[in-house]
Amino acid sequence: MASKRISAPARSLLNTVTHHRQPPSHRSLTTESASPSATIAQAYIDAHLHSLPTKPVLEDRPSSVIPPPTPSQPQPFSPPRNPFHKTTHITTHTFPTLEPLSLLPYPSTHLLLPLRKDLLHRAVVHEGDAHRQGSANTKHRSEVHGSGRKIRPQKGTGSARLGDKKSPMLKGGGVAFGPKPRDFGTGLQKRVYDLAWRTALSYRYARGELLVLDATPKVPDKITEGSRERWMRDLLLHNRFGAPDGRTLFLTEQRVESLWDALRGRKTYGLHRKKIKDTIGESRHARALTVEEVDVKDLLELGRVVVERAALDEMLKGHESDLNPGERLGAWRRGQAGVSV
Amino acid sequence: MPQLHRSERALKLFADAARQQYVCRTCRAHQTRSFHSSYPTYAPRNDRPLLTRLRESILGSTETTPAEQKREEASRERTMELAKSFDPSKPLESRKPSDKDEYYDIAAVIDPTINTEYTPATTWDELERVGSEQWARTREDKGEVYNGFAPQKQAQLTNQDWHSLLHNVVVEALVLRRAGRSVDQLWYPRARTTFTYTAGFRIEPGTDGTEMVPPQNSKAEQKILQAIPETMEGPVEETVLKRPLLKPESGLQSGASWLQTRLDDGKMNLAIAKRITQLTGRRIPDPVISSATNVESLLDALKLKEKPPKLAKTEELQSVGIDLPNVEVHSRRQTVVHKEKRVGRWKVIEAELEARDLPVTGNRWPQSKTIIDPKPSNLGRKFKRMQKA
Fold first, then answer.
1. B365 or B328: whose pLDDT is higher?
2. Residues of B with CB under 8 A from a CB of A
């Protein structure tokens, strides 16, 4: 049952509504009595309220004094905690044995996003457009080599009228609306692209196709240069990461020369023993990319993604513009550390 | 006039100023180019004619023939010596040239007249192919072996086997926890399995989590703790589990009660998943490890899902039919006849059609179900037969 007491704000409202600055009272010979409005208000309260008033509703004094500021610091507004945000864990592995080591926590805003095929489609199309060379070129009739001489008279020949021989109607002429070099890039909002990036990683995580390595995946030094390619192939086939199982993408922070060599090694044999300077880092069974080179399509293309822990953090931190500052990875980790302490 | 060389002629004309003859520019240039301080001297011609020299180079002369024979004889003697010293049981000698950084095998010298057991190959099967890129790569490869944590061959287990294996691993984990040892010791390489000891353990959910029967410090528990090493002494070859893991009559705890055993600790989940990967080569997905609250979640990720025979029988469509009030799931295409039967009108329709001597389903047209002969040559004849009919 609702309380019948007038609450404090209502009480103050009554005070403010009915109060005006009273002039100093001039005592007169008449009987002293309270002001008429106070009498009416009090009569109403007495009639309707059953609780004991703590003090008179109307008081003959100035309006409610502004309370002094509280000594404690005013708390900044903090929004209530989002109940949909969870924490999930991903296993870290050693390289090259791929032994599970520990569980790393990540927020659901980064690795537990729901599948949004439309966003992934937009991101992949945007990347494809940006990668287009756009170098198709044809000659317009003004660019075709030749003079502008009218090749036959306007009238009298019995054939159609023709101007110069560069007309697109003629063989050897220019192209009417042919392609010209242009930029095929389309725009995509950074926030949408970042959300698509994290959606792709979440998709891989949900399917168990995201493997995190605790350290940089380097081929051990004890493996000689001539054995690296075969040893790497053995590693991929042993762990079912190779071509029969959909191939694997290795993601690292920096270019790891031993890994790149192992995947498409330098040719150190041959007639002149020449070394090829730039290695592709891609073989029939796997591909290696750095964080700067990878895009959403690469994350979705191959059978699984094996990523270095530092590279995963760098990717996630570089694609969280759609999140509030408090939801980003760094802030989330600081919050987790504070909670755990 | 004596025969003069062209340059001399030009020089003579140029020098003879009295004649005042014209010397062309070309001649002057030629003269400048062909200035010689001395006349060229040619090598003395051989005293033998050309044909003689040709014949001697092809057929040999009295000097060259014996010298060549001598050289051939010396080479033949060297080859025969090498062939005589050939021993098929000994490995080939290898030498390292000064300008190379690897060893080369010295090929054996075989003389069929001496090494009579030698038979030259008539095909290239099993002969070493030398000189390709693959050959070069194989030579450079030192043959280091890769060793992974998980076994290469995945164990193919039935759902009962997964149940047994999970029971064994969970019991081991709980025993370790109860004994105060680290759960990480679960995957330390060990020499023997503990299936016979863990089979008798029953896991019951207790007030504070799980209770295990038999109680602590029982004989079976001691055996389990002894089987699990406390230190990682080195990789022991643990073979991939083969079926059957546990015989049905061993009395393994079955039923859903122990599957509800709580797994609150992420470390415990990881240790169990790691042990399963170590034994079977199967990896449990990370979302399952992270979100698993009981053993049943882990078992669901491991066991084989039976493929339902019909799409309508799948769990997804069955749940749609139950949850949504305006959706019905049928295993067969719903025809007009099904709808009429549902309403109750079909028997009336059927009776009426029979009364009028009309076909209830299909029709009675003779060519309504023509079977076309697969041989194209018969098509025309069949069609004519149909037309005649």
1. B328
2. 133, 136-137, 139-150, 152, 154, 266-267, 269-270, 273-274, 277, 283-291
> According to DSSP H, which parts of B195-303 are helical?
195-198, 219-227, 266-280, 286-291, 295-302
Beta-carbon separation of A206 and B145 below 8 A = no
Size of interface A-B (CB pairs under 8 A): 90
pLDDT per residue as tens digits for the range B315-324: 888 888 888 8
In chain B, residues with a C-beta closer than 8 Å to the C-beta of A94 are 149
Instruction: Work out whether the CA dihedral A151, A155, A158, A163 comes out positive or negative.
Output: positive
Is the pLDDT confidence value at B116 over 50? yes
Query: Which one, of A282, A222, A278, A207, lies nearest residue A250 by Cα?
Result: A282
Contacts of A239 in chain B (CB under 8 A): 148, 150
Q: Is A234 on the interface with B (CB under 8 A)?
A: yes
Please, what is the average pLDDT of chain B? Answer: 81
Q: Is the ipTM of this complex over 0.85?
A: no
* Length in residues, chain A: 341
Residue B127, judged by CB atoms within 10 A of its CB (0-12, 13-18, 19+), counts as exposed
For B217-255, write each residue's pLDDT tens digit: 788 888 899 889 888 875 555 555 554 455 544 455 666
Greater pLDDT, A276 or A173 = A173
| Whole-number Å distance between alpha carbons of B143 and B159 | 39
Which tokens hold the place of A245? 């199982």
